UniProtKB/TrEMBL annotation:
Keywords per UniProt: Membrane, Transmembrane, Transmembrane helix
Cleavable signal peptide: none
Organism (species): Serpula lacrymans var. lacrymans (strain S7.3) (Dry rot fungus)
SUPFAM superfamilies: MAPEG domain-like (SSF161084)
Protein's name according to its UniProt entry: Membrane-associated proteins in eicosanoid and glutathione metabolism
Pfam families (UniProt xref): MAPEG
UniProt main location, coarse: membrane
Keyword Membrane appears in the UniProt entry: yes
Transmembrane segments: 6-26, 125-143
Lipid bilayer topology: Multi-pass membrane protein
GO cellular component: endoplasmic reticulum; membrane; nuclear envelope
Subcellular location: Membrane
GO molecular function: glutathione peroxidase activity; glutathione transferase activity
Amino acid sequence: MTSIVLPQGFGMVGLAVLSTTWVLTWQTTLVNKYRKRSGIEYPQLYAERAQVEASQDALLFNCMQRAHANTLEVIPIIAITTLVAGVKHPYLAATGCGLWVLSRIPYTLGYTTGDPIKRTRRGGIVGPVMMGCLLVGSAYTALDLVGFSV
C-alpha cells in the first residue's frame, strides 16, 4: 500500500481550486441572464455584428460571453499550477489562486459595462500577476521534486 502525505495546509489548496467553480458558476448565470435579455437563441455562441449594432443587450451578451470564455481558457492553467505549487507551498499557492479568483470579479463586471477596456481597469493587473506567480511557483516546485537544485 502506498501512502501520499500532503503538507499541512494543503486543504487550503483544495478550497482555492474549488473557488474557481464558484466564479465560473456566477459567470454562467450572467451569460444566461444576458442571453435572455438579448434574445440570442441557442446554439448561437455570440451575437452577430448586425445584432450588436441593433441592440445594446446583444453587445452586453457578447462581452459577458467573452469574459466567461476567457475564464474557461485559463482555469486549467490556474488549477494545475495551484495544485503543483501547493505540494511544497500550500499557503502561497492557495493565496495566489484565491487572489486570481477575486480578480475575476472586477474583470467580469468591467467587461459587462459594454466597454471591454474596463475589464482591466479595476484591479486588472492582479489576475495576470497571480497567474505568473503560480507558473513560477509550480515550475520551482516541479524542479525541486525531480531533484534539481533551485
